């Protein structure tokens, strides 16, 4: 897991991890996966 509890500061100071999560979830404008369990 990348984040347990996310706040705005996590997104600001760990933008690279947030981008990685978004890249895994969205590709070509389509949502690929929403269940990260």
Characterize the structure shown.
Helix content is 46%, strand content 11%. By secondary structure, it is mainly alpha-helical. The model has no long low-confidence stretch (mean pLDDT 78). Strand 1 (26-27) and strand 2 form a beta hairpin. It has helices at residues 8-13, 15-25; strands at residues 26-27, 30-31. The protein has one domain (1-37). The relative contact order is 0.17. It is built from two helices and two strands. A two-stranded antiparallel sheet has the order 1-2.
Short note summarizing the structure:
The protein is mainly alpha-helical and 37 residues long. Helix content is 46%, strand content 11%.
Reported for the largest beta sheet, the result is:
2 strands, antiparallel
Helix content: 40-55%
Give the H and E element order. HHEE
Low-confidence parts, pLDDT < 50 over ≥5 residues? none
Protein name: Orange
Pfam family, one: Clat_adaptor_s
Domain AP complex mu/sigma subunit: 1-35
GO cellular component, one term: endomembrane system
What topology emerges from the helices and strands here?
Elements: H1 8-13, H2 15-25, E1 26-27, E2 30-31
Antiparallel strand pairs: 1-2
Notable characteristics:
37 residues; mainly alpha; AP_complex_ssu; transport; globular
């Amino acid at each position: 897991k990348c984040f347990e509890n996310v706040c705005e500061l996590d997104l600001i100071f760990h933008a690279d991890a947030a981008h990685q999560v978004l890249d895994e979830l969205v590709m070509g404008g389509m949502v690929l996966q929403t269940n990260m369990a």
